[in-house]
C-alpha cells in the first residue's frame, strides 16, 4: 500500500521530471539551486538547516496551475486531496498586479507538521474570473464560459482514484501507479492545436486569461525549487546566460532573520505551439506562458508581523515615488532595518513571528523551579524556540511574478465594480474549507507550548 505522503512525494518527483523534459531551463534552475544549497551548507553548517533539513529543502517544490471554473477547481481539490493536500489561504491577484491578472487563488499543501517534514509539496492554484466586468464584457464572458463548459481537464478514472485515495488515505501499488500516470499526464503541455483567433481575443484582455481559457487543457506553469541563497542563485543563473526577471519579489536581503518568502524566476520562454487559423489550417507558432520560478523561505509571521510587512511595503512605495532614481532594494533594506527586529528573540518577544518550543536538555538552567512565562523560560535556558517555516504565499509577490513574465499589461476597466470573491465563496465552490494559514501556525505554536507546560509541571498554559 502506498500512503498519501508517498503518493505526494512520487507525484512531485514525476512532475519535476516531466517539466524538466518540457522546459530544459528548469533543469538548469534545479541544478543551480542544488549547487547553491550545497555551498551554503558547507559555509554555514547547521545554521543553514535552521528552517528545514537540507534533505527537505532539496526535495521541496511548489507547482502552479490555472483552471477556468469552480467545477474544475473542485476537481483539482479532489486530486490534491488524494495527496493529503488541503486548500490554505485565499489570494486575490486581480488587484495585486498593475496589469490584468483576472484570477483568484488558493494553495493546496500538507498542514500537519509531520506531513510537511515528509514532503512539503504545495501547488498554487489559480481560477479565472469570467464574471468580473472589469476584464470581461457580457458577450466575451458568455463565449468564455461556454468554451470552458465544453472541456474536460481530468478523466473520470483519475477522479475516482483520487476520491478513493483521499477516503482510505492510501492506495494499493497498482492503483497508485495508475493514479500517478493519469495525474502527471493531466498537467502535461498539450499538443492539440490552439484556436489562434480565440486565443488572441483573450490575450488582448490578459495573457493569463488566454493561457487558461484559450486552450482545451491545463498544464504546469512553473515548478519551483527552494534555495537557501536566492541572491546568489539569481547571479549564477544570469552568468549561465539565462534571462532572469529584474527584481526579487518579497522582503529585501538584509542582516536580520529571513521572513516570509522571496521569489524570482527566469523569464517566460517562447515555446512552440500548433495554432489553428480561421481557415482551418494549422501553422507553427510560439507562446510565452511558462517560466522558471525559484524561492527562498523564511519564518512565518503572525498577523501583527504581516501587518508590519504590508506597512513597510507602503513605506517603500512612498519613498520610491519621491525618489524614482533611487535603488529600490537599498531603500527597502534601510526601511526594514529601521522597523523590523534584528533577532529571532525580539521577533518572538514582540509577537511578530511563530515558533515552536521544546525543553532544552543540554543547557544550564537557573534555579530549580521553572518560571511561568515563555520569555523567562527562554532567557533562563529552560526551553528553546525553533522558527516555523512560512509555507504560504504573498499576493503582491505572486502577482509580481505573473506580471513580470507577461508580454503586455492587457486591459482592465477600473471604473467597473469587480465581482466579489473571498475565502468563504471559495470554500463553497470546492466543498471543503479553505484554511486560515495564521490559525495553522498558531495551532502549531500553541501545541508545542502546551507540551512544554505539561513537561515542566506548570499549572497555567503558556501563551
UniProtKB/TrEMBL annotation:
Keywords: Dioxygenase, Iron, Oxidoreductase. Its cofactor is Fe(2+). CDD domains: VOC_YdcJ_like. The keyword Transit peptide does not apply. The keyword Cytoplasm does not apply. Its EC number is 1.13.11.93. InterPro entries: HGLS, YdcJ_bac-like. PANTHER family: 2-OXOADIPATE DIOXYGENASE_DECARBOXYLASE, PTHR39479. Belongs to the 2-oxoadipate dioxygenase/decarboxylase family. This is 2-oxoadipate dioxygenase/decarboxylase.
